[in-house]
Amino acid sequence: MTAPPLPVLIDCDPGIDDAVMLMMALAAPGLDVRSVTAVAGNVPLRLTSRNARMICELMGRSDVPVYAGCPRPMLREPVTAEDFHGETGISGLDVFEPDRPLAPAHGVADLIARLRAAAPGSLTLIITGPMTNLACALVMDPGIAAGVREVVIMGGADVAGGNITPQAEFNIFADPHAAAIVFDSGLPVTVLSLDVTHQVRAEPARIARLRSLGTQNALRMAGLLGAANQLEGRWRPGMNAPMHDPSTIAWLLAPEIFQSKAARVRTITRPGKSFGRTAVREAKSGPHRWVTHADADAFFALIEGLMQDTP
Q1: What is the Cα–Cα distance from 284 to 289, expressed in whole angstroms?
Q2: Number of helical H runs and strand E runs in the chain
Q3: How many domains does the chain have?
Q4: 147: which DSSP letter?
Q5: Which sign does the torsion angle of CA 3, 247, 245, 206 carry?
Q6: Cross-strand partners of 126
């Protein structure tokens, strides 16, 4: 008997790699995407909320509601990444205004309402941007934690070092106070950090295999990954783009291609050189899971499988 699709809520800040993540999630028969909430991060909220709707429309999934969430971090000054992702947030796609408008509620209100209504331990949250929306929801209504099965985030770094400062990864650095609230909440959090995402890169041969599938969405994804490689090359000549945010979907669909360890993660929020760093300590009782290794070939085989049957 086939297991029913896993119900998920996606919180993101598209972003090229968020766009790839959304394409994977919306194409996966094993995931039931209930809603998408956008947050300021890679680019401002007006762009992340439009870009999320754009991907839903391109994937033929305008039935999935998209909510605009928090336009800035909880405490720190806003920080965005247009210098990497481009002014639109999504290089490699022709930008347009989606037909379906934003859902009328605030993204934080949507998270609270859905988690309140959920059966205990039934909803999985995928977070691929700053954790502002979930942190605000937990502050407003701590009881919503009961509805969470797992929180799967892309963020942080340990042995890999940072990508926005020498010690900090962008998603955590953009709102470390929110990250601290989520990590300290006791929720079961699985972390796909730079430690693992740097092991899976969009090598030209892998993009070529995607393009050879010939489906519309495979061609779109190949365009996104090619654009990501061009942008990565500006900052790190000769390097291909890591598969940051898509790693969250790969973890949920094929956890067997990863290795991980039980850990306790905390976020450094005091000012200084370590601001935004994730401190990781192995702990048999968790409550966190720190993913350490990925099989890159299996990762891209998964993506090819998701894209080959799409229109």
Answers
A1: 10
A2: 12, 9
A3: 1
A4: G
A5: negative
A6: 10, 152
Q: Do β-strands 148-154 and 123-127 pair in parallel, antiparallel, or remain unpaired?
A: parallel
Q: What is the DSSP string of 113-134?
A: HHHHHSPTT-EEEEE-S-SHHH
**152-210 per-position pLDDT tens digit:** 999 999 999 999 999 999 999 999 999 999 999 999 999 999 999 999 999 999 999 99
Inform me whether the pLDDT recorded for 310 exceeds 60: no
Residue 1 resides in a domain: no
Q: Who contacts 122 (Cβ-Cβ below 8 Å, separation ≥6)? A: 7, 147, 149
Q: What is the rounded CA–CA span in Å between residue 158 and residue 169? A: 9
Could you tell me if residue 81 is inside a domain? yes
Residues annotated as part of the active site: 244
Domain CATH number, residue 42: 3.90.245.10
What count of other Cβ atoms lies within 10 Å of the Cβ of residue 205? 8
Phi, psi of 262 (to 5 degrees): -70, 140
- Reported residue count of the chain is 311
Which helix (H) or strand (E) segment holds residue 294: the answer is strand 288-294
Residue type, 195: D
Residue 132, CB-side half-sphere exposure with 13 Å CA sphere = 28
Which region, left, alpha or beta, applies to residue 156 given φ > 0 means left and ψ of -120 to 50 means alpha? left
Peptide bond into 287 cis (omega under 30): yes
Within its chain, how far is the Cα of 254 from the centroid?
A: 16
Domain with 295 in it: 6-307
Find the helix packing angle between 216-235 and 296-307, rounded to 10°: 140
